Amino acid sequence: MPTLRSASRGLQSPKKISESDSTTPTKKRSSPRSKETDALVCSSPTSPPSDDVFGKVAKCKIISSPRSSRKRLYGDEPTQGNKWNLKDPAQMKAVKEALHLATVPTSVACRVGEQNKIFDLCKEYFEKERAGSLYVCGCPGTGKTLSLEKVKNKLLTWSKEMGYEEPDSLSINCTSLTNTSEIFSKILQMFEKTCIGLTPLQRLQHIFSQKSSPRRMMLIIVDEMDYLITRDRSVLHDLFMLTTLPFSRCILIGIANAIDLADRFLPKLASLNCKPHVITFRAYNKDQIYEIIQERLKGLGYDVFDALALEYCARKVAAASGDMRKALAVCRSAVELLEADLRDSCELQEFHSVTFDHMDKALSKAFKPKIVDTILSLPLHQQIILYAIVNLFSQSKKSSTTVGELNRTYNETWRSIHRNKRTAIGAVEFTNMCQGLSDQGLLKLGQSKEEKSRRIALTVDSSDIAYAFKGNRFFEDCKHSEE
Ligand SMILES: Nc1ncnc2c1ncn2[C@@H]1O[C@H](COP(=O)(O)OP(=O)(O)OP(=O)(O)O)[C@@H](O)[C@H]1O
Ligand SMILES: [Mg+2]
């Protein structure tokens, strides 16, 4: 099977990846992804306490046979680790689970600093028996939810060890609320089931203003807090103001993607005397993505990825978004491609790990440009015209041609595909096809007295066209017959 690199070989030189290579712009997630995943993540059991609060050594829960810590940085020589027995379905299952979003790693690599900071602030509130608030923000997939669950578990264990009264804890994902003010009913459930006469917010305000209010501390984690933003932001203000009431013992931690949310609502919260501490989770860089995946796989006892393949994934995802969710998805997809290769391969090819080519294909799939779908949905003749134009430009090093010249290249391509068995379309139909491509914004068709002299140039990147035809047997056969 060809890869993006091999597919574009005949068409243009392979694209080099670099730090700035960004096929998919970083964007804030607007629609919620599967919250089932988050629910599963949140259900993780408490990890055992240790002096190193959020120890760097991570092991996935599914792992049964831990092996000694081995740090492998890319650029190093491949390690002499145990070989992955790809014929063992249990090993394959373990790999997939270790890379699954719902699998909770026992510790969170590369987020020790952030977790310690949050833990220390919460600890201080505990020790002083006073309320307070934190605002945790960062791009999607930067480990906020995961880290906060770890901090919560750690705090519960720590408070027990210190002999404090067990705090109440509540994690709310705002995407599950039917309306923004439902957040107050959820918090109120920590105290009682009913609320007669007063609104849930008023009831909470009343409780936190009474001397008789519960003295135990409360940890409330409000995830996906962006969903609470109303036009006047009153819900957000009311929520944070709960921590200012005289008998409140509430540690409120809001988590959101919006980094600028803090700028937008902090001044007001400062004026209301409830400005939260802000902790920002920066997008993962390539080294961190590499390390996190290695950590998640560490306990398996065998190498899953070739070092170069993993490095490629880390670089590409870091350049695009630094989203760990994306990195894990690409890695899983690369494993599935390896699995498919093992199933389909007629040759008895020996694989012991995911290769660079598998990763290349998985990344190409994950970062597929939108234009590729448009190209793939075109009628065959128009696809052949695009294929012909890319070939023509790549051979002649030109960036434009005429309808007449392209028609000749198209005819040659057609003949090589159909081995002269079928007749190509006529000149008029050919121009109509080109016009159609121009109407779809795929090429530019100039004006001229003579149809065949009209100039044609591509308006899309030729590498996108090459990519669209990658692995397409029709065009691959044509390429081979040209060679
Ligand atoms: N440091 C890490 N170590 C291991 N796995 C990680 C790490 N960071 C993130 N992940 C994994 O990446 C996925 C996304 O992480 P998480 O849900 O914590 O991100 P998030 O910052 O809360 O994203 P969002 O803003 O979209 O809610 C999870 O499956 C998580 O297990
Ligand atoms: Mg999250």
Automatic annotation (TrEMBL):
The annotated regions of Polar residues compositional bias extend over 1-11
Residue stretches making up the Cdc6 C-terminal domain: 386-469
Cite a single GO MF annotation. Answer: ATP hydrolysis activity
Q: Which keywords label this protein?
A: Cell cycle, Cell division, DNA replication, Nucleus
Location(s) in or outside the cell: Nucleus
Q: Which CDD domains match?
A: AAA (cd00009), Cdc6_C (cd08768)
The parts of the chain that form a coiled coil are: none
Which Gene3D superfamilies does the annotation name? Answer: 1.10.8.60, P-loop containing nucleotide triphosphate hydrolases, Winged helix-like DNA-binding domain superfamily/Winged helix DNA-binding domain
Q: Which Pfam families match?
A: AAA_22, Cdc6-ORC-like_ATPase_lid, WHD_Cdc6
Task: Give me the Gene Ontology terms describing cellular component.
Answer: nucleus
- Is Secreted included in the keywords of this UniProt record? no
Alphabetically, which GO biological process terms does the record hold? cell division; DNA replication initiation; mitotic DNA replication checkpoint signaling
State if Nucleus is listed as a keyword.
Answer: yes
Region feature Disordered, mapped onto this chain? 1-52
Query: Which family is it part of?
Result: Belongs to the CDC6/cdc18 family.
Record protein name field: Cell division control protein
Q: What is the lineage of its organism?
A: Eukaryota, Viridiplantae, Streptophyta, Embryophyta, Tracheophyta
